[in-house]
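Thread title: Can someone regenerate the structure for this chain?

I was given the following input by a collaborator and told the matching structure tokens would be attached. They weren't. Posting the sequence so someone can regenerate them.
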Amino acid sequence: MSSFDIVYQVPDTVKMGLATGVLQRIGGAIQYSSSYSSTRQVVAFLRDETTTKSALSLAGQLPSPLNGILTLARTAATLYDGRQTRKAVYNVGQNVREVRNLIEIVSHQVNDVNQQVRLVLTLGKFTSTGMILNLALAAASFSETMQRLDMLSQEVAKLGEIVRAEFARDRDIRFKKALQNARDVFEIRNDQTAVRLAIDGLYEAREHFLADFQEALRNEHSLDALQKAQHYLTRAMYAEISRIRCYLASGDTELAKKRFEEDLPHLRDCSRILVDAWLDNRAAVFFHAEVESENLDRFVQVRKWLDFPDTWFDVDAAGFLFSLIDELRHDFWNPAAKEPSEGRLRKVLPGRRSGGQIELTDRLEQSEIIIENYQRLIGFELELHAMNQPLDEWCGLVKEQDINQHGLALLVDTDAMGQLNDIFREE
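Best answer:
Regenerated them for you:
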């Protein structure tokens, strides 16, 4: 049985594993990448500040010991680590000295302040509004989830008039009532009938949100429709996690695993539908010369996830890129997409948002947030299978005051870390 050490700085071996592509971050879990190992063994779990009150302040603390974990994995975006790992992953077999030199080169890239600030600000912005789930979903209590739902409700009030008018507030109210019932059951008493009612209420809330999600995208992909759909999907994810946490809190860990494995594919499919809607048939435009290389790179990563959402699945990068170009090249010389002032390109190239239009970078950002949330669900699944003690003990491994002080914490699996050390020693 594995034991866990709690650290507030990234161990050198983990840094090396992330930078060379041996490891990858999947939401709140750091595991072996599919390009290196067929196993899904987790090396460490991330815990973030649950209150989110200082989410945006992370950017002001750069560089900090644990922010590198987020930026190495290209926070909010990428599952395959983009430019950083593409250059590194094929060099894993080199000796330790060469790998350490590679780490130094990659570190220079990661420590580019402008890039880090943008990445962490993106994450902080959406975390502080409740749009991003906790990193450690098992440790996210019902009260903390309610705090994030309150933030989401505040965000709806800031959206367009149509969204505010059409958003089903009664769904929100019933969900919060079900969440409060769950909180009362596990913080005041533990009656099995009450547990069942709490689970049923959260299931009903999830199904209502998913139905509203489908309805929002039924006839159009306007900015208003996309924003509504994103809010409904985010709430459905919160309802699902809260429901699974009810099983965990009642001590039924095996049933929690089973139910989550059953429900995760549906949340994945909804995430893919919404990401595809945000891209909205504008794929070829990302290859236009006026689109920055960084945004083309981000688009390729998003499209790769759309085609291969199971992030542990190994992908032939060259084959994927050829297929993508072959799919889109019919539109490369389309007169409607030839000049910035004409057709679709005029609507999506970077510029001032107006008249319900939305920039390319905004579409990418929203897509990346959806992917990040799905990854955090995957990380939660990995955490469910790694828990080797009751929920209260597992959640209590890291003290809240320590997370508040450091912003992030890392639960390191000592057995997995020993194996990783052996790998690098052999090389």
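Confidence is low (pLDDT under 50) at residues 51-67, 71-100, 105-117, 337-357.
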